[in-house]
């Protein structure tokens, strides 16, 4: 017997306070952090280099790794320190680096809350989405950009993980979305956006977001923003908002895949609001369960994983197909698994499997945004659950099912599936096969630009650490050591 989430579910009442912006006192210095990563420097290593550069100038600096951590958190060192920090990083990179590039110039601005708000007003929601797209383009195009998202790429606002789901649940539907000003927008324009999105999804799955995300961001800013500001009748307007929501959700997923979870959070919130304008409650639930819930899972916030997945179920009850219901339940199961709650995970996973079985008996009812969720994707989700619960044999079984169903075009998904399989083999003590499987995943990842794939590979390598003395593990480590 399957169990359905309680119909009385709502996120905590404390989440109801709208996000009013990040406190202006101190903001994380994302530009400095990005350059440190690019240089391949540790905090301690950078501190040593800064002290050496200072000594060459007759200055006695005594910075350490804690000092660098404070700079990353937003502290601005005084005097000539910014200039010397820029010089130290520039020497490591082999090029000139300015104080503006390290986020310590006079033009540095605090992080804005753009994109973190679920707008109640339709016009405000359009403005907010367009500003998010514009500022993301600025962040990408200018090395010294100080746009609103420049310092928000890696930092996630914890309150805004769950709060938008409450707003989505209680905000009334937009009664009218038609627009009478601006260039004429028709159904063909909407079809072009949908076709472009489908092509970008295929490229992302095959090559990773590192190759594709810049195209998505520019298309949203240059084309979709213009269409939303145009003139369209009610039917076209709903379709246009739906198409914009789908592409914005894709941009959120790609932000995760390029190591920008804070930016992903903003994209997901705006995709949720655009879906509301489209009148598509089902896709709104998808954004919560397949987007924001998975983001919370990758950040290690299992309670938020469960809350977001349940909000998706609550807000779409009676309005989605069994296939979508299976996805929403699978997302919740992952939260229970991360918490180590085996019984709740087993119960919800069983409900997901039952819903998917019902979906298999129906034809033609699924919307386009859920059509990709096949047996391989569900097996992939369940493999994550078994991995997190330490159930190596079951993780292997589900990962094998997923790999059998994922075609070659889903290269990133196949790499993740191989690493789930390798982890299951490792959990069962099979070092030989675990390393062989992970080698296969590593070879596949070499052809991708995927931060998500790299994270899974790094997780597997960390799990090998207790076995580092084993010859097979030493061989694996030598093959994949960083250049």
Kindly estimate the percentage of residues that lie in beta strands according to DSSP.
under 5%
Rg value: 23 Å
Poorly predicted runs are 1-25, 107-111, 142-151
**Overall spatial form:** globular
Number of H/I helices: 20
Q: Which oligomeric form is depicted? A: single chain
Rounded to the nearest angstrom, the distance between the terminal CA atoms is: 53 Å
Q: Indicate the structural class.
A: mainly alpha
**Beta strands, count:** 0
Average pLDDT score: 87
Q: How much helicity do the residues have?
A: 55-70%
Order of helices and strands: HHHHHHHHHHHHHHHHHHHH
What would a concise description of this structure say?
With 483 residues, the chain is an all-alpha fold.
In words, what does this structure look like?
With 483 residues, this protein is an all-alpha fold. It is 65% helix and 0% strand. The chain is built from 20 helices and no strands. The chain has helices at residues 30-39, 43-56, 65-73, 81-93, 122-141, 159-170, 187-207, 209-228, 234-257, 261-278, 281-298, 302-315, 322-339, 342-360, 375-388, 392-405, 411-427, 431-445, 451-464, 471-479. Helix 6 (159-170) runs parallel beside helix 10 (261-278) and helix 13 packs antiparallel against helix 14 (342-360). The longest helix is centred in the middle third of the chain and has 24 residues, at 234-257. The radius of gyration is 23 Å and the shape is globular. It starts with 29 loop residues before the first helix and ends with a helix.
């Amino acid at each position: 017997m399957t169990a359905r989430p309680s119909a009385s579910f709502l996120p905590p009442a404390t989440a109801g306070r709208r996000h009013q912006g990040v406190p202006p006192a101190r903001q994380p210095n994302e530009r400095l952090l990005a350059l440190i990563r690019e240089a391949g420097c540790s905090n301690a290593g950078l501190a040593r280099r800064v002290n050496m550069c200072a000594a060459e100038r007759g200055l006695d600096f005594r910075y350490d790794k804690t000092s660098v951590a404070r700079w990353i958190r937003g502290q601005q060192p005084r005097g000539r320190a910014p200039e010397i920090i820029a010089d130290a990083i520039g020497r490591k990179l082999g090029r000139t680096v300015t104080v503006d590039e390290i986020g310590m110039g006079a033009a540095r601005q605090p992080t804005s809350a753009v994109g973190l708000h679920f707008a109640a007003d339709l016009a405000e929601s359009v403005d907010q989405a367009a500003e998010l797209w514009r500022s993301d383009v600025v962040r990408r195009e200018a090395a010294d950009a100080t746009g609103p998202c420049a310092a928000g790429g890696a930092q996630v606002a914890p309150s805004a993980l769950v709060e938008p789901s409450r707003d989505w649940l209680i905000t009334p539907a937009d009664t009218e979305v038609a627009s009478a000003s601006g260039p004429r927008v028709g159904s063909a324009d909407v079809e072009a956006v949908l076709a472009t999105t489908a092509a970008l999804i295929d490229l992302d799955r095959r090559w990773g977001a590192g190759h594709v995300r810049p195209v998505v961001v520019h298309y949203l800013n240059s084309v979709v923003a213009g269409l939303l500001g145009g003139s369209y009748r009610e039917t076209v307007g709903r379709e246009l908002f739906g198409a914009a929501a789908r592409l914005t959700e894709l941009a959120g997923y790609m932000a995760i895949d390029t190591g920008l979870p804070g930016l992903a959070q903003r994209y997901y919130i705006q995709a949720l609001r655009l879906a509301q304008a489209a009148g598509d409650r089902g896709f709104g639930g998808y954004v919560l369960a397949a987007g924001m819930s998975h983001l919370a899972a990758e950040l290690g916030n299992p309670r938020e994983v469960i809350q977001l997945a349940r909000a998706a179920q609550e807000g779409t009850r009676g309005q989605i197909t069994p296939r979508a219901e299976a996805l929403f339940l699978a997302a919740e199961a992952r939260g229970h698994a991360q918490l180590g709650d085996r019984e709740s995970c087993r119960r919800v996973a069983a409900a997901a499997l039952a819903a998917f079985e019902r979906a298999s008996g129906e034809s033609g009812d699924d919307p386009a945004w859920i059509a990709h969720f096949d047996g391989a994707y569900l097996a992939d989700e369940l493999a994550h659950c078994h991995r997190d619960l330490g159930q190596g044999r079951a993780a292997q079984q589900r990962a094998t099912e997923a790999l059998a169903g994922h075609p070659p075009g889903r290269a990133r998904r196949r790499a993740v599936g191989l690493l789930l399989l390798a982890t299951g083999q490792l959990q069962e003590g099979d070092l030989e096969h675990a390393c062989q499987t992970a080698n296969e995943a590593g070879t596949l990842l070499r052809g991708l630009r995927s931060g998500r794939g790299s994270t899974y590979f790094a997780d597997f390598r960390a799990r090998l650490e207790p076995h580092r003395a084993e010859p097979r593990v030493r061989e694996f480590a030598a093959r994949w050591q960083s250049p």
